[in-house]
């Protein structure tokens, strides 16, 4: 059977991953049956556009990574004046692929983890990785430069997340709780193998934890990996994957309009998602997706092909230059301290974070994490489920309280 022609194959690849991350079961349809994808409305800041309108105090922070990228962090406090007077332990929320810090606030205050943690008395910090809408800029590079997009989750872990944790630790003089989702768990696990990072972390809750992707179960993604579409994208000179651009919106609309059943495709990529509010799809699309890099895609596809949790593979010659060895070094999960408490939540319908790969991760850890298994959850339910407070958040908060040194009433 012949592979799809490159232009359509690339388009199919892009739409697949876009749909897997926008946290919606379906695109809203207009009267003609076409998808209502649209450009976002202008934003001043994450605080001004999403947090303040819900009645929560929020402040913007900017930090710089060791390799020169500017990152935006938001600090969110409770809407309760009494709780604001004496903030509890800091919690850093780390989003997944094609998302940013807004992902934690897309539902109502009663349903969104960011708001819930603030109202439970935690000092909530919101992470945004380089290249997303809330973390733009570099000391010398422009976003138009291909070098600006020369990074994968490896740099997001070792530079972005590490710098966020260090900043919060220095500001609060307290160890940091981490909550990561999907790519945010890859970043967390890799960063926590670094002793200087791990010593600043009190505990971590990992939602849809990923370190290995060898047994990813979605056949659509497997097909895209087999035809090496990640390498084709790089060969085409595409370095930034930005679906909010004019060409991205037009591409997605044209694919969904008669070429691909986008509703079924989401389920085929992420697994069946049980519990989010379809009526909020338009609102989700105002914020998602955010840009990422083609190199990041390539790194993730390397993981699927090789079954490894390793640094980026440049090929033999450049590996020798970058790493001093023929193959990229693996991230050794046994280096995560046994004393560091971990909670890991995973879903029975998650087609991206496969249970067999999850078991591989568990075997390499020194510790025995607290596990939360939600049989009917798919990949995006862990972010936007309307029942997540009862299903997950209450257990997560109880876990943090059991390890936190500060009292939270």
Automatic annotation (TrEMBL):
Keywords: Glycoprotein, Hydrolase, Lipid degradation, Lipid metabolism, Signal. It comes from the Eukaryota. GO terms for biological process: lipid catabolic process. Residues 49-107 form the Partial AB-hydrolase lipase domain. The active site is at 182 (nucleophile), 350 (charge relay system), 379 (charge relay system). Residues 1-24 form the signal peptide. The keyword Lipid metabolism applies. The keyword Hydrolase applies. One of its GO terms (molecular function) is hydrolase activity, acting on ester bonds. Belongs to the AB hydrolase superfamily. Lipase family. This is Lipase. It comes from Rosa chinensis (China rose).
């Amino acid at each position: 059977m012949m592979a799809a022609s490159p232009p359509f194959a690339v388009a199919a690849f892009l739409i697949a991953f876009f749909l897997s991350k926008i946290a919606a079961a379906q695109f809203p349809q207009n009267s003609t049956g076409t998808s209502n994808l649209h450009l976002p409305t202008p934003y001043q800041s994450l605080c001004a556009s999403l947090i303040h309108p819900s009645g929560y105090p929020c402040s913007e922070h900017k930090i710089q990574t060791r390799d020169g990228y500017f990152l935006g962090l938001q600090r969110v406090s409770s809407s309760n004046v009494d709780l604001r007077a004496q903030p509890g332990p800091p919690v850093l929320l780390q989003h997944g692929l094609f998302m940013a810090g807004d992902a934690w606030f897309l539902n109502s205050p009663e349903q969104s983890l960011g708001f819930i943690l603030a109202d439970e008395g935690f000092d909530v910090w919101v992470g945004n990785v380089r290249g997303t809408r809330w973390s733009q800029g570099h000391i010398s590079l422009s976003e138009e430069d291909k070098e600006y997009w020369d990074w994968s989750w490896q740099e997001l872990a070792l530079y972005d997340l590490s710098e966020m944790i260090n900043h919060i630790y220095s500001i609060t003089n307290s160890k940091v709780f981490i909550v990561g989702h999907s790519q945010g768990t890859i970043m967390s696990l890799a960063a926590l193998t670094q002793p200087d990072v791990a010593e600043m972390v009190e505990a971590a809750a990992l939602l849809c934890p990923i370190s290995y992707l060898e047994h990813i179960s979605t056949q659509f993604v497997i097909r895209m990996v087999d035809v090496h579409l990640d390498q084709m994208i790089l060969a085409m000179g595409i370095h930034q994957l930005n679906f909010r651009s004019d060409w991205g919106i037009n591409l997605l609309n044209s694919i969904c309009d008669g070429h691909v059943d986008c509703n079924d495709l989401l389920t085929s990529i992420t697994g069946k998602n049980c519990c989010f509010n379809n009526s909020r799809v338009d609102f989700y699309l105002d914020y998602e997706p955010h840009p990422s890099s083609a190199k990041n895609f390539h790194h993730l596809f390397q993981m699927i092909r090789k079954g490894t949790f390793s640094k980026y593979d440049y090929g033999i010659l450049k590996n020798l230059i970058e790493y001093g060895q023929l193959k990229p070094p693996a991230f050794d999960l046994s280096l995560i301290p046994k004393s560091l408490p971990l909670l890991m939540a995973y879903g029975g319908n998650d087609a991206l974070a496969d249970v067999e790969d999850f078991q591989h991760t568990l075997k390499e850890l020194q510790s025995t994490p607290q596990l939360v298994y939600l049989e009917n959850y798919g990949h995006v339910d862990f972010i936007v489920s309307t029942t997540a407070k009862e299903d997950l958040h209450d257990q997560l908060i109880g876990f943090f309280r059991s390890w936190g040194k500060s009292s939270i009433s």
